Amino acid sequence: MAPQQHIPVAANVLGTIGTICWCVQLVPQAWSNWRKKDTEGLPSLMIFLWAVCCVPFGVYVVVQNFNVPLQVQPQVFGALALVNWVQVMIYSNGWSAWKASLIAVLLAAVFAGAEAALILTLRGPYSRGVSWPILLIGIISAVLLAAGLIPPYWEIWKRNGRVVGINFLFLTIDFSGAFFSLMALVAQQTFDPLGGSLYIACLTLELGIFVCQAIFLFRTRKLRKQAKLDGKKFDDLPEARAYQDTRTRKEPGANEPCDGDVEMQETVVPSE
Fold first, then answer.
1. Which range is most confident: 3-7, 80-84, 238-242?
2. What φ, ψ does residue 42 adopt, rounded to 5°?
3. Among 6, 28, 46, 213, which residue has the least CB neighbours within 10 Å?
4. Is-contact 156 174, C-beta < 8 A?
């Protein structure tokens, strides 16, 4: 597809809204990580893949001459992803702050250099009609973005459907950013299917996370009601802990709960 020659006002407006969302979407997550000093449930692989994704993503939107807000978007997104990655490495992996920060700065420099080199290398051939290299770059970007949203599903599976560690304000803003960015592509003179697939993949996988949490809340509604009546937190109930451990702790011969019903595990002390 040829570079965009003229950007409609609607595309710029929608792209600006999407960029604003994706410029701040990881801020609530970073704030939550810092406030709790805990990133359990937030996969480092997810954040790192998102940071790496911004290199081919940035190359693709610049060479394709997307509207300016969409060109800025990958740069800010990548920077915020590295900030969150540093937090995960400190809080969950035990790295020192200086070590994690230094590596993040070095990664940012490498990513920026790689993006600039690829833009300068591919812009000329693309303007002469050689489109397969930039198409490949776009595919890599879409795959990395989608792959980054796979690790959270592993964390959700381990907790029997519960979403832990992911801030839902972040997820909502991120979802909105992908939606408005997709609409910006729709509003352009020609729709870019590869760029659109990137946003559609993000929307689909994030919607799945919302659905998982909604199902978990529905299935544990009685336990949460019981915890409220007892004046306890949900995680303080032995039944709640057992429910979330059913997929990670399976003793040989142990009975598993059926249909989401949770039973307290009783300790049997053998008679002397």
1. 80-84
2. -100, 105
3. 6
4. no
